[in-house]
């Protein structure tokens, strides 16, 4: 266990940002913290990092109690801030040199790390340029590089892909996979479920300052899924077809509407092939789909809310 | 603590490559001194000369030197807010370094820039404009104390202000207000408006007044080292007061 947060409460005025948050992060995992705007992701991260105080609860990081005075844990942690927080009046390389230096690196080791990390975020050719001349995506990549230069064992990324072009976004997602493959533990926050689904080994869903569910994508989906649904358009609907479909193992109900069949089965029966084969024998299939619920549905089911407001 | 030199160098370099700040801090005082001396030259007569030095010029240059030295801390505020109060603080305060040591290193860098400014003014005016600076020890002590005072006053403003805009407004009010009261812009304001308090401010009530008083008694109007040192100690006490205030408020703000 790298991080344990127990019953964390953080109150701003009359706004409870964290309401008994519980969170654990295991060594080597990529934990996705998924939650809508204002659910408390950044607040949770800042408390975990010892950057702000809390009203109550306990945090341990690397087995040490974390608070705003503990500087020891930080040497092994990297924080990619939600906002781009590099120095605009320094070049990419100067930024990296400064942040590396603050973590105690110097000389050949520092230069080697800078070179490596610039290559990693593909900014080598921009090393001597100031971030003001960079695109938004490049600035975000430099922001990540500055948190990697001291080679932390535990990297925390707070919405690193907000408002950037798809190319930079893919680049960042690939980077996270590579970082994780090297054995770095990653905490990744986002309100994009596709991202979290793609790169995270485990997910904690947050809403209104608390963790409302956790597990792998499949586990989370299993929590809300009570049946598997196949929608099938037959070339010709017949009573025989309906009866035979109803007789397939696992099928709970078959609803017919014109040529459209909605077939619901018990979770995990895996009878899609048999359904298609049956329909094929009775006149053929014009089309079908077997949508699995996604994290969006999980969130909707658990909270009654959409994960993210429609974005333009 | 071991990162102190690194942080110091970082801020010193940024301040020394900030073109606007450099112009205002190093170029502007020199330009203003030359312009003011040129204006003053028009009505120079024999009795402003003492021991071969032009006392009118000396008075103007003393005003400039100490006014600019007292403005110095204002530049620090421009770095403290974006780095230690706004979003970047989450990065800078996450590195394993004590916040106060970090702020102190940045402050020292700004002080050194101010000190270079004073040095430049003194050396240039001595060499090129034949200005007499009197007692070198008193001069050096006054410059250092004025710079310290300015920086701790501004650090105090940084701590009490809600944001950079508010801190800058307070800084302008205080630095320009005190400079005006001290006689930088239109001589003694007590000569313009008949209020005894204005005379008191002009003679004793501002950092500029005390520095000038000290300079004068250390070798210009009369030779009274006692008074020169008294003024120096008054400035030093004000500095100590602000150092204490920043420590107390720094503690409160942290909690
Ligand atoms: N410094 C602060 N002062 C007052 N309220 C705050 C402060 N920081 C956060 N909050 C409030 O706490 C709640 C949680 O905010 P937080 O930034 O942690 O959410 P988030 O999940 O990171 O959201 P986002 O996706 O927008 O980054 C919000 O209601 C926010 O308005
Ligand atoms: Mg956030």
Summarize this, please?
Chain A has a 6-stranded mixed beta sheet, with helices on both faces. Chain A has a 4-stranded antiparallel beta sheet with strand order 2-1-4-5, with helices on one face. A 4-stranded antiparallel beta sheet of chain A has the order 12-13-11-14. Chain A contains 10 helices and 14 strands.
Structural write-up:
The complex is a heterodimer of chains A (312) and B (255). Chain A contains 10 helices and 14 strands. Chain A has 312 residues and is α/β, with parallel strands linked by helices. In chain A, strands 6-7-8-3-9-10 form a 6-stranded mixed β-sheet, with helices on both faces. In chain A, strands 2-1-4-5 form a 4-stranded antiparallel β-sheet, covered by helices on one side. A 4-stranded antiparallel β-sheet of chain A has the order 12-13-11-14. In chain A, strand 12 and strand 13 form a beta hairpin. The model of chain A has no long low-confidence stretch (mean pLDDT 91). Chain B has one domain (4-253). Chain B is 77% helix and 2% strand. Chain B has helices at residues 4-16, 19-41, 55-71, 73-85, 89-92, 99-129, 136-160, 164-182, 196-205, 207-217, 225-254, and strands at residues 49-50, 53-54. In chain B, helix 2 (19-41) packs parallel to helix 6 (99-129). The radius of gyration of chain B is 19 Å and the shape is globular. The two termini of chain B are 22 Å apart. The mean pLDDT of chain B is 89. The A-B interface holds A 46, 49, 51, 71-72, 74-75, 77, 79, 81, 83, 85, 87, 89-90, 98-99, 101-104, 146-147 and B 2-3, 6-7, 10, 14, 17-18, 87-88, 90-98. The complex binds adenosine-5'-triphosphate and magnesium ion. Adenosine-5'-triphosphate (ATP) is lined by residues 12, 15, 17, 35, 37-43, 82, 159, 191 of chain A.
